[in-house]
Amino acid sequence: MANGSDVIMKRFQHRKQHVLQRMDKSSKGDIDRDIVGLCNKINAMDDYFTTSSCSGRILLLKASEKKEPGLFLAVWHKNVDVGSFKKSLARVLAREKAVVYFKLDPCILHVACKNLDSAVRLLDKAKLAGWKKSGIMANSDKGVMLELMSTERLELPIARDGKLLVSDAYLDLLLEEANKKLRRTKEKIKKLENMLNM
Question: What is the per-residue DSSP string for 92-161?
Fold first, then answer.
């Protein structure tokens, strides 16, 4: 007769198999190339599986109280040059009259863990790798869920009624800072991936 820990492990492995086989439900439609290595490494470990991820992104989005289709007006998962950014921004301003936000999101990863001990082990490594805004989200009969997140973030309104609210020089500085922070968040992904070899 199977003991309690065997039952929990079988249930966890069944959930892992089910989640990893389902289609990607993100708006992007696939895993970001810059985080796929880390996800694969975590998913190869018995005690964990990833449920969602983002390697970090720069975006323009429409101000809204809730998530809805058409919220993301332009998205970049890698550094973007000023010329490309301003061309995209001009296209957005030509059609969008709502308040437009410039945003930088850091890397984020949701990981299901077999138990509290395995969650704490991964959480400790993530924090050492610089994913400082990380913690245990839930601890239930379905297991433990971790949210791993870095700290690089920017979010501010830059346009309204199709008109810019900031100067060209400010936009240049904003993009320079966002690119710098995005590079830093990508470095933390590699750092955590390397730490999982230890």
Answer: HHHH--S-EEEEEE--EEEEEESSHHHHHHHHHHHHHTT--S-EEEEEETTEEEEEEE----EEEEEEET
pLDDT in tens, 94-127: 999 999 999 999 999 999 999 899 999 999 999 9
Amino acid at 123: L
Backbone angles phi, psi at 142, to 5 degrees: -85, 0
Full set of structural domains in the chain with CATH: 4-195 (3.30.1960.10)
Tokens found for residue 67: 């998530």
Q: Which residues contact 84 (CB under 8 A, 6 or more apart)?
A: none
